[in-house]
Amino acid sequence: MNFQTLSQLANLAEERALSIGALMVEEQSAESGRSAEHEFAKMKEYYGVMKEAVRRGMQENTTSRSGLTGLDAQRVGAYNAENESCLGGPASQAMAYALAVSEVNASMGRIIATPTAGSCGIIPGVFLSCQERFGWDDDVMTYGLFAAGAIGYVIANNSFVSGAEGGCQAEVGSAIGMAAGALTELRGGTPVQAVHAVGLALKNTLGLICDPVGGLVEIPCIVRNGFGAVTALAAADMALAGVRSVIPSDEVIKVMLEVGSAMPEKHRETAGGGLAQTPTGRKIMEDLRQRRK
Q: Which of 6, 180, 246, 259 could pair covalently with 201 via S-S, beta carbons 3.0-4.6 A apart?
């Protein structure tokens, strides 16, 4: 890739008079040696998988094998249909869709890791709800996925996207940043505004630990996906309104690396701390152990 930082990414997009998404199509094609059309078609297939995961999560039984989670997306959807939600309809729908995909993952369904399975609901939740709201076609959304991928590439190569390495800030935080930056561009924002959206989003998740109860990607992972989708919408709106990340986004990414590296091991996907070690968390783990005997 011809960029390694978000500032380089924004500058390169502006120099070539391209959106970040269109730039990433070219960069991916050059790196893979495959045609831009091939790369675009493959990404469009991935978006189809995301849409199907949302549909399944909103319509089918997503009870996990552990029995701990499932059907919350449908509960939120039903509540939204019958009540005026506190968030408002569009944000509530994004939240429900994010929960849906994460519940499909927990019930062993097919998802796209964006950037990980633990954060798989955020980008689909944001993208599909906005697609339905603004009437964008799948080609537009595919360019959005390329934009998200470019942002994820920078984060992964300068910090973490793995909860085992950097806590949940690395998984959910990165996904929020990717969704926020891509959505900013989809809504007509400049590459610079998209980069500011990433920094705004990441700053809001710094220090978030990874503490899965029972070592499963269920509690609290699923609800964090729902909250993450809402945060991504907020970050995009701030950036589009002209709010800037006072600490440059590339510096925020470095801070995420610093914080994640200093995070105790028990708070990095080991189930050794945080919510996993509450009395209720320990009881759930013991119940799971007994069931496996």
A: 180
pLDDT band (50, 70, 90) for residue 293: confident
1, part of any domain? no
Measured between alpha carbons, how far is 101 from 3 in angstroms, rounded to an integer?
31
Domain extent for 107: 6-292
The domain that holds 147 is classified in CATH as 1.10.4100
- For 210, list phi and psi in degrees, rounded to 5: -110, 110
Specify if 172 maps to a domain.
yes
Confidence of residue 30 (pLDDT cuts 50, 70, 90): very high
Average pLDDT, rounded, for the chain: 97
Please compute the mean of the pLDDT values over residues 156-173 and round it to a whole number: 97
Residues 6+ apart with CB under 8 A from 144: 21, 127, 182, 183, 185, 186
What is the C-alpha separation between 65 and 196, in angstroms, rounded? 40
Which residues does 292 contact at the CB level (< 8 Å), separation at least 6? none
CA 8 to chain centre: 22
CB of 256 within 8 A of CB of 206? yes
pTM, full prediction: 0.97
